Automatic annotation (TrEMBL):
First and last residue of the signal peptide: 1-23
Gene3D superfamilies with a match to the protein in the record: TolB, C-terminal domain (2.120.10.30)
Cytoplasm as UniProt keyword: no
Subcellular location: Secreted
Keyword Transit peptide part of the UniProt annotation: no
Keywords: Secreted, Signal
Coiled coil regions, renumbered to chain: none
Classification of source organism: Bacteria, Pseudomonadati, Pseudomonadota, Alphaproteobacteria, Acetobacterales
SUPFAM superfamilies: Calcium-dependent phosphotriesterase (SSF63829)
Record protein name field: Gluconolactonase
Length: 372
């Protein structure tokens, strides 16, 4: 009976929150090309001293070989970060000192470059190989290039996990599991790893995903990408999160990190925030406004902390806008990764990615959100 009551409230909430405001979107001329590449770049992060880092996913392919994680020089040329050895997939047996399948990068509030390596993971298919590379987090000191933290995520993952993205709240690292629905909490002080909201409605992709007007298909059936995007509010009190299909939910970080609450308790404390469309990436500014990519209509939505949405910009170049970043100058960085056009999502297995792939910027003067 309780579950039925919750679902009824959610359905009503989705209907109430789905409207988009009438604020005039930015013109296409506001969208600037910052970086181009013959290889797919799926994430970008910029240090306060303007060092620019990008990652290249294993699923992106490309006509040129190159590193998995790179720092771009002033001319936009990628250089393996922290060095060639870390980016040599031939060393996959060295699990602690080699990138396998990097899915996200971001500079944390500690100033380190954090890398989310999903390891040998299969999304939506057979279980991950038991003897394969496990998922891990590695944090690098930007000055020396040396790893400061290396966290193997065996305790917090399952045979179907695909560790997707990362955010910070004090000593807690919060990760999404896009393969086996749930969130993973890692306590930096104790090293404890804990899974929460496993197979909850809020972490599970339960509806079709659409990109550029087409149903997203993988392995001959509708694609499913579970818990994916997440953001922490500027004051650290709220976690926003969602499967890639939407909608977006929220929960207080105090509840989320309370070890005495089981998943049933936590689910009661989750509430619907906004009925987001199929989403590639999100970012939050220092005022608590969320920027969400609508990969079906090729646009970015701005959603206020009160749940009011407007179209920030709509542009045909924003094909699967992914992991975005707000730098110290208030510039919004937007990788357009064309995920839906890659071979994995084509019925004939042939990539439709149009090269070069680009990262765009919007000069918005936003307040960055780097506190948590």
């Amino acid at each position: 009976m309780l579950k039925k009551t919750i679902l009824s409230g959610v359905a009503a909430g989705v209907f109430a929150l789905a409207s988009v405001g009438e604020a005039a979107p930015l013109p296409s001329s506001a969208l600037h090309v910052a970086v181009t590449s013959q290889r797919v770049m799926n994430a970008v992060t910029v240090s306060d001293d303007k060092r620019l880092f990008v990652s290249f996913p294993y699923w992106g392919g490309g006509s040129e070989p190159g590193p998995t994680v790179a720092e771009l020089d002033a001319k936009g040329v990628p250089h393996a970060w922290p060095d060639e050895s870390w980016n040599n997939r031939g060393h996959e047996h060295d699990l602690l000192h080699n990138f396998v399948r990097v899915n996200a990068i971001r500079i944390g509030p500690d100033g380190y470059l954090w890398v989310v390596d999903s390891g040998d993971a299969n999304v939506g298919g057979k279980p991950n190989p038991p003897d394969g590379a496990p998922a891990k987090l590695v944090a690098f000191d930007l000055s020396s290039g040396k790893p400061v933290h290396t966290i193997v995520l065996k305790q917090g993952t399952t045979p179907h996990s695909y560790v997707d993205d990362l955010r910070f709240h004090g000593d807690t690292l919060i990760l999404t599991d896009a393969g086996d629905p749930g969130l993973i909490l890692v306590n930096l002080k104790t090293g404890q790893q804990r899974r929460v909201l496993q197979h909850a409605k809020s972490t599970t992709d339960e509806r079709p995903m659409y990109a550029e007007g087409k149903l997203l298909i993988s392995n001959g059936k509708p694609a499913r990408v579970h818990a994916d995007q997440l953001e922490v509010s500027p004051d650290g009190s709220v976690l926003y999160f969602q499967p890639s299909s939407g909608p977006m939910w929220k929960i207080s970080t105090a509840d989320l990190e309370n070890p005495t609450l089981n998943d049933e308790d936590l689910s009661r404390r989750v509430s619907l925030f906004y009925d987001t469309p199929t989403t590639g990436g999100t970012v939050i500014d220092g005022q608590g406004n969320l920027y969400v990519s609508d990969v079906n209509k090729l646009r970015l939505l701005k959603i206020t902390p009160q749940g009011r949405a407007s179209v920030l910009i709509a542009d045909k170049r924003l094909v699967w806008a992914d992991a975005m970043w707000i730098d110290s100058t208030g510039k919004l960085w937007i990788p357009a990764v064309q995920l839906n056009r890659t071979a994995s999502f084509q019925a004939d297995g042939v990539s439709r990615v149009q090269r070069p792939v680009a990262i765009y910027t919007l000069d918005l003067g936003l307040e960055p959100q780097h506190r948590f």
